[in-house]
Amino acid sequence: MYRPYHPPADPQLVRELTQTQQELRTHVRLLPLTHEPEFIAGCDSSFPTPETILSVFVVLRFPSLELVEKVWHTGPVEVPYVPGFLSFREAPNVLRTYEKLSQKPDIIMVDGHGIAHPRRMGIAAHIGVLLDKPSFGVAKQKLTGSFTEPAVTKGSISPLTDKSGELLGEVIRSKDKVLPLFVSPGHRCDQATATRLTLACLRGYKLPEPTRLADHWAEEFKKELR
């Protein structure tokens, strides 16, 4: 995937961000939900310009997936681009967006990774801990780990593991013959729940409805910035 050139990160900044991730990681809890969700949110962020971030939350009723609410917030990017630490660029604006929701969700599906991250702190885990809300990640590309390609039919699953065999997530074929998704728990959610909800939110597209609609509305909201 193409990424524009960025100067090397400041070593002191990398140390500080690493320390913060390690601290956040101590708060992660991988647990099944205590009750079936009534509302599920989708969260996505994009960068309309190198200096600007746009974050979107949609809230859907579950299991009907009726759209209940959509909100967005845009602001300046506060942290430089550092591979493996993108959650620090996204999280502040994501939290401001979340504050705008009238209907708070029972669980958040994030366009990105949960614990399927080199330090087990992808954006879904990051914001889950900061909000202390159940969360999980649904990513379009692998960040770390190894897997065997799942069968080409919708619903096929294979494990995503690290070098020691630890389960980081599951690789899910969400539609026949399309590239798979990488699903991992973030916080107050376990792998079984993350996988089950991802499959339950598929409606014929590659992406499950919460993140698909968050991505759709991000494109619509961008038009208001032009």
TrEMBL record:
GO cellular component, one term: cytoplasm
Residues where Mg(2+) binds: D44, D111
Gene Ontology biological-process annotations: DNA repair
Subcellular location, record wording: Cytoplasm
Known cofactor(s): Mg(2+)
Site for Interaction with target DNA, residues: Y81
Record-listed E.C. numbers: 3.1.21.7
GO molecular function annotation: deoxyribonuclease V activity; magnesium ion binding; RNA endonuclease activity producing 5'-phosphomonoesters, hydrolytic mechanism; single-stranded RNA binding
Catalysed transformations (reactions): Endonucleolytic cleavage at apurinic or apyrimidinic sites to products with a 5'-phosphate
A Pfam family it matches: Endonuclease_5
UniProt entry tagged with the keyword Hydrolase: yes
Predominant localisation class: cytoplasm
Described purpose of this protein according to its UniProt entry: DNA repair enzyme involved in the repair of deaminated bases. Selectively cleaves double-stranded DNA at the second phosphodiester bond 3' to a deoxyinosine leaving behind the intact lesion on the nicked DNA.
Family designation: Belongs to the endonuclease V family.
HAMAP family noted in UniProt: Endonuclease_5 (MF_00801)
Protein name per UniProt: Endonuclease V
